[in-house]
Amino acid sequence: MPLNPVPNKERDTIMKQAEYSKKIFLILSHIRVIVNNIRLYSLNHSQVEAQLRQLFKEFMSAFAVQPEITLLLIENDLIINNKAVSANELKNFSLFIKILQEKEVGFVTFRTGLKRSELRLFLELLAKPGKEAVQLLNSKFIQVGKIGLRQERGGTARDGEGAEEKNAASLTPPSGAERNGGEYRKEEIEQALSTLNALATDRLDVIKEYYDKIQRFGHCDTREVENVLSVFVDCFAKNLNPLAMLSVQKEADEYTFTHVVNVCILTLAQAAGLGFTGDKLLQIGIAASLHDVGKIFLSADILSKTGRLSPSEREEIELHPAKGASYIFGLKGVSRLAFLGALEHHMHYDGNGYPDTGGEWKTHIVSQMIAVSDTFDAMRSNRVYQEAKSVELIFGVLKGGKGTVYNPMLVDNFIRVVENQPQFT
To answer: With left for phi above 0 and alpha for psi between -120 and 50, is residue 424 left, alpha or beta?
Structure first.
């Protein structure tokens, strides 16, 4: 008899998850086969029709377990319902991934209520030549999209006419020659400080309203956040100290919005310390400001719970990175960097954390910066379930996680940036 037997309930859960994973893998394999057969024969071929009927049954079986199936494709990595496909399993889906890449599809969501006619149309569009056809399909039960890339500011090309899109995920720290080094008049500095103080004294209404619009309407114009963040970027350019504006929430329900702005400021400070400036710094700020957007799609009762979370509640909490990333997929004009920041900010430097990647995922450096800022601000805040920790204790946690949870270089940079701030001494 084993010394530590797995409880029956936990064993049943593991078995159900394994069975569900098999259902999803079968669905994806079947989609790949049907798409190839449509290309070889036709949509109306008897063999294709029979395969379509079988595929629809497989979807119904999967929906009986979970009402939604979301596939995220990031380069050559595939995430299915918040769990990355391991390298060993990934080779079984190389042809399916190739099909999505050909069509420039970054994500697909299937929901309960899916009709066979919709599934048929999806497969037909997926099999057609050309990149954009499948993007035309978006219904309540099937959503298809791709990761948007934003064009660098200052370009003169319009509507893609010779415009070169630059992927924000490829950001690297600029050289010292690219840093802002100009002189600023006293009036400019006073104006920047006044604007920054107004943001703090207005109790973060801009961010609060932005998140509220997303929750109520499902979308929002990110230019509203850009206008706020441009103030922070301008202050860093003038060698001012936005860290002095870090806030403490006055009401329990303000925590999410205060935390978002604090993480944004802390991440911008890290990035500025590494030499990022201008539009690159703004893109990093936008990614940080959207990192927790997935939480607005979670139950308010769970987010405000004072006691220990149950396993099912913990599972829901851990869905917020994937939910946030899925939402950002649908935003126009938002860089891929924001998607990665939302998805990866609870992933560890060594590949652990969540969403579960099997330890084989390499997170983006900006996501790594957000993770450090997120930990620091969460631990220094008074919450319903914990008291604020000392800065020394938090630094100890960050140092203890170097090389596993956090990027060692970023921990050192972060401590260097904030340790001499008056509010932390």
So the answer is: alpha
